[in-house]
């Protein structure tokens, strides 16, 4: 490093960069300061994409504010120098305190998860005026997201209340009224920071059992805000974050008095990361699948050498640590994360632990895809993605071996890799610190996801042994229920609309509030499909939104879960759209295909079912199906396609 510094100071940037890169190669995760030096050298040499990549590596390596402050200008200029962002958004940050540092860090954190953000920063303390004034500059900016960055000093709660339930309800109403005002004037998604409670508390421990104390009421308000938010408002749990960091580090009284910054500089990167993760989840960018190594990852030791009785699992500090890790993984699975195994092992040896070890918490039934062989892990990860029909960019890989982690980073860079520390007692913290499993909603389909993906593997085996594709379809014994939107399904509909990429003809990301408006629009045909077969109930797997425009039913949105692609489900949905078109007096069904980086597989789906291409511009194609001339599209492979009669069941 010293030689590199000398060369850089002498203006010999190429040689300095070589020294720095050689130093970085000695680390799996190079130090933040070294990453920044490499980034600055690349910038000097006009290697802007590499400058952005190394600046992002610096914030991965360090959560100290000085690193983020130094990396921010490099990230802002170069993060998307040669790669398109996954999403581009307009973000308004409205604060009751000085938010300048938060805004800079938030832009950096969003870039790290692939989101380019144009940010409007409200004036200090003007968040209510910005929301309540329909002509404010914030509304003129037209945000996609609004972050409400507030602190506990904004609460109009007394120190002691004789009627705490009334005071908490009144305070809750103050905030939910703001939510409603924003919702009535904008389609933006609101991200509310809740209230971190200070460590200093004049009531002492008594406050924890005194409902009328301000700390007790503030804690209760946080809970009530979460309940009121439902699926319409996202919450960043600042109280939890302040506990994680430590209250005395989260707050900085001197900084508050100097600049009215409610969050300490030490806390800014943590708050920015978590806020960015919540926004990424709302955008459908969360990762889907956790891929697990086995030996020295789920248990201590090597099953092929130590045998079932020799591995560490339970009974002792290390064994208990592996159990804690497995239990944390199961909690992720319960919220919808798919689990897969990728292990260099004999298949029978690997499965034996799941089947026979009494302390094993994760069972084979929890695993959607199990791969244990001696092939390179990057190759196996590609196979896992194919079997599950998801992208490599949906996978997160966990392995104790740094050599395997390096191979995956190099050969499958789309896969996120989590670095496990040497001490298994720290595994849970390492996995919990990974934020791209954040979710914006929880539905029944999330709870059943492992079963649904296991069923997909069974279906693939059945297809391989079927005499014909028609025999395969019939042997599945598929049943569908197609129905209009209803309030119960709206969170799942919003989830699919927000995250489905492959079978998604237009990739229009409608908000939950927009979906509610569609459901109430008499000119809108809005349909969901649930699918079951002999292997599993796949839940709500397809959504279609179309509008009657004179004698045309125009499909605005049509998407389907990747779990059921290639099983005539698309024909079934088109069949029902034809029914609705005829019922509404339409003679033409019109569909649009808008290309994205991920939906090429559906570019010709309309043509496959008899639509005629009528327009083409910059990759976007428009297709029409003449119902009068061709009759409705039919599908005989899925049974019971109608729930309650399509002519009258309206949400």
What does this structure look like?
The chain is an alpha/beta fold and about 650 residues long. It has 4 domains: about 1-80, Tetratricopeptide repeat domain (Serine Threonine Protein Phosphatase 5, Tetratricopeptide repeat, Alpha Horseshoe); about 85-280, SGNH hydrolase (Rossmann fold, 3-Layer(aba) Sandwich); about 290-430, Rossmann fold (3-Layer(aba) Sandwich), CATH 3.40.50.1000; about 475-640, Aminopeptidase (3-Layer(aba) Sandwich). The chain has an 8-stranded mixed β-sheet, with helices on both faces. Helix 6 links the parallel strand 1 and strand 2. It is globular and about 75 Å long.
Summary of the model, kept short:
This protein has 651 residues and is of the alpha/beta class.
Beta-strand residue percentage: 15-25%
| Total count of strands | 18
Instruction: State the domain count.
Output: 4
Give the averaged pLDDT, no decimals.
93
Order of strands across the biggest sheet?
A: 16-17-15-14-13-12-11-18
The number of helical runs is: 28
* CATH-derived architecture of the largest domain: 3-Layer(aba) Sandwich
Over all CA atoms, what is the radius of gyration? 27 Å
The biggest beta sheet is recorded as:
8 strands, mixed
Low-confidence stretches: 642-651
């Amino acid at each position: 490093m010293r030689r590199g510094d000398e060369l850089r100071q002498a203006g010999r940037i190429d040689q300095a960069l070589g020294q720095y890169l050689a130093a970085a190669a000695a680390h799996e995760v190079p130090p933040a300061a070294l990453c920044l030096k490499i980034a600055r050298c690349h910038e000097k040499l006009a290697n802007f994409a590499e400058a952005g990549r190394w600046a992002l590596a610096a914030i991965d390596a360090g959560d100290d504010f000085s690193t983020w402050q130094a990396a921010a200008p490099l990230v802002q200029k170069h993060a998307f120098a040669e790669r398109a962002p996954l999403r581009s958004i307009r973000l308004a940050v409205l604060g009751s305190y000085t938010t300048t540092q938060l805004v800079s860090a938030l832009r950096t954190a969003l870039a790290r998860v692939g989101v380019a953000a144009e940010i409007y920063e409200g004036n200090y303390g003007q968040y209510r005026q910005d929301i309540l004034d329909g002509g404010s500059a914030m509304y003129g900016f037209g945000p996609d997201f609004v972050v409400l960055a507030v602190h506990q000093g904004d609460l109009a709660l007394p120190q002691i209340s004789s009627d705490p339930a009334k005071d908490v309800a009144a305070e809750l109403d103050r905030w939910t009224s703001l939510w409603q005002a924003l919702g009535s004037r904008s389609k933006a998604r609101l991200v509310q920071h809740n209230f971190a409670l200070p460590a200093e508390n004049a009531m002492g421990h008594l406050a924890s059992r005194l409902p009328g104390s301000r700390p007790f009421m503030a804690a209760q308000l946080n809970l009530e805000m979460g309940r009121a938010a439902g699926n319409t408002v996202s919450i960043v749990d600042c109280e939890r974050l302040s506990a994680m960091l430590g209250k005395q580090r989260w707050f900085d009284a001197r900084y508050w008095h100097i600049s009215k910054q409610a969050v300490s500089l030490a806390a800014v990167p943590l708050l920015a990361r978590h806020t960015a993760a919540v926004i990424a989840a709302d955008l459908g960018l969360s990762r889907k699948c956790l891929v697990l190594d086995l030996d020295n990852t789920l248990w201590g030791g090597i099953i092929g050498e130590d045998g079932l009785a020799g591995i560490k699992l339970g009974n002792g500090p290390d064994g208990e640590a592996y159990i804690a890790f497995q239990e944390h993984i199961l909690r992720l699975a319960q919220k919808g994360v798919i689990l897969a195994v990728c292990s260099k092992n004999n298949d029978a040896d690997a499965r034996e632990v799941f089947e026979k070890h009494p302390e094993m918490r994760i069972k084979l039934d929890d695993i959607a895809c199990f791969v244990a062989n001696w092939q390179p892990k990057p190759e196996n990860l590609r196979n896992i993605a194919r079997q599950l029909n998801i992208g490599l960019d949906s996978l997160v890989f966990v392995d104790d071996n740094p050599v395997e982690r390096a191979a995956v980073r190099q050969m499958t860079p789309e896969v996120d890799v989590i670095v496990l520390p040497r001490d298994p007692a720290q595994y849970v913290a390492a996995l919990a610190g990974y934020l791209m499993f954040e979710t914006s909603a929880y539905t029944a389909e999330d709870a059943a996801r492992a079963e649904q993906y296991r069923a997909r593997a069974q279906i693939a085996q059945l297809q391989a042994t079927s005499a014909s594709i028609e025999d395969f379809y019939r042997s599945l014994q598929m049943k569908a229920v197609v129905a209009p939107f209803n309030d119960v399904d709206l969170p799942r509909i919003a989830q699919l609309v927000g995250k489905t990429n492959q079978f998604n003809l237009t990739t229009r990301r409608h908000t939950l509030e927009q979906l509610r408006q569609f459901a109430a629009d008499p000119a809108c045909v809005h349909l969901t499909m649930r699918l079951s077969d002999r292997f599993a109930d796949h839940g709500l797997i397809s959504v279609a939104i179309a509008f009657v425009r004179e004698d045309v039913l125009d499909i605005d949105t049509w998407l389907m879960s990747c779990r059921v692609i290639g099983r005539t489900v698309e024909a079934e949905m088109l069949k029902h759209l034809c029914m609705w078109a005829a019922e509404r007096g339409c003679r033409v069904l019109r569909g649009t295909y808008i290309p994205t980086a991920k939906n090429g597989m559906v570019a010709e789906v309309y043509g496959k079912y008899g639509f005629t291409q009528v327009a083409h511009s910059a990759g976007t194609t428009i297709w029409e199906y003449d119902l009068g001339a061709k009759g409705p599209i039919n599908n005989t492979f899925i049974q019971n396609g109608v729930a309650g009669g399509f002519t009258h069941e309206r949400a």
